[in-house]
Design brief:
The complex is a heterodimer of chains A (159) and B (802). With 159 residues, chain A is an alpha+beta fold. Chain A contains five helices and five strands, in the order ββαβββαααα. In chain A, strands 2-1-5-3-4 form a five-stranded mixed sheet, with helices on both faces. In chain A, β3 and β4 form a beta hairpin. With 802 residues, chain B is α+β, with helices and mostly antiparallel strands. Helix content of chain B is 31%, strand content 23%. A seven-stranded mixed sheet of chain B has the order 3-5-1-12-9-10-11, sandwiched between helices. Chain B has a five-stranded mixed sheet with strand order 7-15-14-13-8. In chain B, α17 runs parallel beside α18 and α18 crosses α19. The longest helix of chain B has 27 residues. Chains A and B meet through α2, α3, α4 and α5 of A and α2 and α20 of B. The structure holds FE2/S2 (inorganic) cluster (FES) (2 copies). The site of one FE2/S2 (inorganic) cluster has 12 residues of chain A, from loops.
Chain lengths: 159, 802
Amino acid sequence: MSEHNISITVNGEQHELTVEPRTLLVSALRDELGYTGANVGCETGRCGACTVRVNSETIKSCTRLAVQVDGSEVETVEGIADNGDLTTLQEQFQEQHGLQCGYCTPGMLMTADTFLRENDDPTREEIREAIEGNLCRCTGYQNIVDAIEATANQLGGQP
Amino acid sequence: MSDADTNEATAAAAEPDGDGSSGTFGSAIKRGEDVPLLTGDGEYTDDIFLRGTTHLAIRRSDHAHARIESIDTSDAEAMDGVIAVYTGEDVVESGVPNTIPTAWDLPGLVQPQYRMLATDKVRHEGTGIAAVIAETPHVAHDALERITVEYEPLEHVTDPVEAVERDVPPVHDEAADNVAFDFELGDVDATDEAFADADRVASVDLRQPRIIPNAMEPRAALADWEDATGKLRLWMTSQNPHLHRMLLSAGTLGLPENKIQVIAPEVGGGFGSKIYHYPDEAVTAWCSMQLGRPVKWQATRSESYLTDCHGRDHVTTGEIALDDDGTIRGVRVQTHAGLGAQLSQFGTATPSYLYSTVLSGQYTIPAIHCRVIGAFTNTTPVDAYRGAGRAEGIYVIERLVDVGARELGMDPAELRRRNLVQPDEFPYESAAALVYDSGEYERAMDLALDHIDYDELRERQRELRDEDRYLGIGIGNFVESAGLSPSGLAGDLGAQAGGWESSIVRFDSTGSVTVLAGTADQGQGHRTTYAQIAAEELGLSVDDIDVVEGDTDRIPQGMGTYGSRSASIGGGSIARGAREVREKARRIAAHQLETSVDDLEFEDGEFCITGAPDRSLHIQTIAHEAYLGHDLPEGMDPGLEETNFYDPENFTYPFGTHVAVVEVDPETGEIEIERYVAVDDCGEIINPMIVEGQVHGGIAQGIGAALYEGAAYDDNGHLQTRRMDEYAVPHSTQLPEFETDNTVTPSPHNPIGVKGVGESATIAATPTMVSAVVDALEPFGVDHLDMPLTPESVWRAMEGDR
Ligand code: FES
Ligand code: FES
């Protein structure tokens, strides 16, 4: 099988790697580069556990080939904490008990973080719609919505 | 002394008996375990990489039922990057015991052979036939396609009633009629009599569809066999690593337990599905033993749908006998329970004992009889799913109470109220063979009904009906048996494992504490909850306590996490161990302070002499002394730790009432959930935040079962719901805001008064939702509707087409 050399920047760090054309972004991140924060729950773009940001836009990394993001900036959950301190959003997930097993959490955080950049004063309905593509089997979502709402309130429009 | 007094006295004794001053037990302490999970540092099985890891993929049957004529693996073996391909014959030839054992026997149970990989026949779609090991997961999966299997297809059956009633080729030759067991509980004569004497009888025919657990993390295993020491290390998605060690050891691989280390790292949800000993993880281990290299297996989501044990699958006729004044006289139930193609670990316990014994619900019912026929079908094995057995049983009794109320023209809340077991009747022995520990059922029910202003709401319902709007109010009263125990009873009923739990509470010489627990967390927050228990008993802060779970080499013994047993049995064991440690510390303190143990008070971790508060020793200082060993009471061994085995005297019985208010759109059949109120009583509450989280998640799964979920097989015996877009795991806009509340009735059966909460809300939410929708459909003459209540099925019911 042919191989491609690509270059991606993950959380600010540049990586050169060789991948097969069919290698998914999530596999490249996890297996090649060791960013195991993004989880695989369905491989079909349904669950959102693998959500990352590519060039500031959230995508499900199981629906993108690694070669497609050649030259892009990728952000994963490992990169969202400020110098190792939890962000307000992460803190609020802990505070509001917005996670149980934590498997959906990296994807949920990426989706919520991006959403709050676009809407800093959301209604609960808007929050529920924003995370609709991220499935959680443990929490029933309510505490996740609480966490996102509390973050918006605390940041008061300054993510 | 009246019964009520006795009850209160024992209940009081069951509260935590630490000094309480640390104030940790009962507080909503944030979970320490969250931090790595929030930063991507949490380590799930698939995040672990060992040098030289190879990858396993399993070729699975695409037939529901067929004889295997031949398997040709040569093309696969010839592929670049393929290391080995094994078939079921290879496993047989290796001479290992090669059985996937059941862990629950029943009288007359037919127990067919269950091997790691099939050799003769495939009995459900997804049966493992061959294992490919390759250098990368891609190559392993590609190679699956190059294996040629010739089959002789056989007629299949997927429905548990058809399986035993229709003339079909049996799933197993040993069970010609596909009956694995025919189980009865209760008094058939007394029940017949009650039915003959009662004023009225109401009945319901119902189905409880198969639920697929859908833990967000699919099952996975990483095995590392070390030739030099003959030791197997196995990381896996396990709810009970010690049970997995036990079943792998003798039954499957033929290794002594001390040569197996099972490690459950972070586990991304279980809900039952990660309790069981499946062929796949065993094959992963076996392959590593063959190759002497690490082998990793990671299920794809569609493999999860095909192989994770499904839940439920009941077809039931239930009858309730009533007097005109609303007195329930008796209940009669007959169920066909689908077991799937093989007996899973607890697959036999769930539809028999766990199901039939809760059929009395919260009610005084003098006569109960239940018969369950366990049927083999050509489907994925069925086992316990969140609420296991109790959910199915409570669903039946709650549906029966609702149809009974209709029959009598009585308000369903009123009929329930007239039959509730009263607080002074505990311990209450039901006609379904359980002795309920403690409860105030009416108080919880009143609280739930108050939340929605029940009487006013009924009024509003009537008004709205005049406007062609259909509001429904559903009530779900539940009581469940949590924490299966004691071991002797479990053994009498057929369990092949104990019901105890074990823990170690260990001070080190710096005064910090490690708790090693035999349970295994999958998101329940044990590390925080257990630290709260130990901190309370030892007068320390939770930050002084480290909790370790999920590693059979670090924690010598355990039974794991399922059946809402962790807080009550696991937590009970920790509390007992901590108390023993505290008492040893007290003896050291008395010795060093030159006083008697009785003269010592314990507060904030400090032992001080009554009336002489300046003469004191802190428990952490004593820990240091205990390890110095220089000045201990005569004959006392050094060190400060205790190993505890706790085998409770009985189950605990969480209970409560859930209420749902829905509106059904007569044009579309769409259901809108207006309110969802949950009042739960799980005894003493260790951490209210975690308890509430368990309730939320439980409701979500209960509503999921009622409205959205359900596995379906097509006419060819193929699973139709095998991807996440074909099986409706509820998403955020499909669930309402939950309103939760509690009552607290401590369990006298437990050292810290807790009852357990993990499954309660799932058990409650399903009947509550169905009750609400059926209530809304009353004007259309609908008495019952099977799950999932899709808009289409609701609309059809309103159109009179069922
Ligand atoms: S794994 Fe990518 S969306 Fe589920
Ligand atoms: S916390 Fe477990 S799936 Fe969301």
